[in-house]
Design a protein that fits this description.
The protein is α/β, with parallel strands linked by helices. The chain has 14 helices and 26 strands. A four-stranded mixed sheet has the order 24-25-1-26. A four-stranded mixed sheet has the order 2-15-17-16. A four-stranded mixed sheet has the order 4-5-3-14, covered by helices on one side. Strand 16 and strand 17 form a beta hairpin. Helix 8 runs parallel beside helix 10. The longest helix has 14 residues.
Amino acid sequence: MDRIRIVGGNELRGELPISGAKNAALPLMIASLLTKEPLTLNNVPRLADVKQLERILENHGVDLAVQGRRRGEDEMRGQRITFSAADIVDTCAPYELVATMRASFWVIGALLAREGVARVSMPGGCAIGTRPVDFYIDGLQQLGAEIEIDGGYVNAKAPGGRLKGGLVKLPRISVGTTHVIMMAATLAEGTTTIENAAMEPEVVNLAECLVAMGAKISGIGTRTLTVEGVEQLHGATVDVIPDRIETGTYAMAVAMTGGDVLLKGANADHLDAALKVLEQTGTTVTREKDGLRITKNGTAIHAIDAEISEYPGFPTDLQAQYMALMTRADGTATVRETIFENRFMHVAELMRFGADISVDGQKAHVKGVRELKGAQVMATDLRASVSLVIAGLAAKGETIVNRIYHLDRGFERLEDKLSRCGAQIERISG
């Protein structure tokens, strides 16, 4: 397997382009199943998860057309891809395609809405805790779907070929369930109300895409979404929002190493809670016309507690990166995880650098140390993996990060972007 080699100690300076958000691109791609007309997405990131979902959509009969680079464009600019689902040839998403990525399960809502039937394998993905599909199933049943689980597959059908609008009250805020139910409701008969819906920017991006395709959705960006079903949707052209998790990741890398970096294209409004905490650590955060500038002049990193919560709170996908930052803080910080029950797997790997971390249930107490030392470490999941890179950038000596296929799922050309800003980092082919 490929590895990443880092020699720490360099400040980060320059410009670093922010890619399109993976967590927005995936549901937008799935939305192409809802219409016979082409859906064009701008700023699609080049990631392993995107390629995997492309394979799944192609299996359903979706044609993909990728536009080439244009003169003068940055080579790291996102792709422009057109998805055409004129004819759904297969309503089954098989195990061998779905097993590696949880978000691929979301096709169930779009297939059920358009074709009235779907057979989707139970999902896979990162081992960061229990993430059952119960919410998806319950929500679709409240729209009239008949569902059975057989041999690791979820078999769903809409009696009469069309779902019925209804009240879907989510027992817990769930981004994935909000995506699935919202897509399913667009073509349902009647009106659907989704209560306790997720408010993440990626959910808003999908809702606005569906509206551009002819859906009738109100309450976008709130905890209550109302979807009035329509007979059919049409094509559209939509931009994938910039990745707020990538933005926060690189912001914390600058805060830890010192330096001055413009995160080009970043949207600070999508990351307000995390940026406020970052400022309290002694990092300067400046909103500029072209993005977000992060500056750290080498002074001490202040230890600041953080509590992870649903949007608009501090994102769970930045918890590991923030913990890495706190390993060098002046004092002790407590990081409380409230979303997933098994998202501290990176702690043991951070301690290989010499970090001082103790875990108490859903809380991690991070006591800052004067110096981290480079180490051999192993990536455990998509987001935690990059916390090891951040630690390596600040550590003394050489760090090798193994099993980086996790990184390739969610961070586009990470080593190239960091190298642009002065990091000594390279990929070593397996």
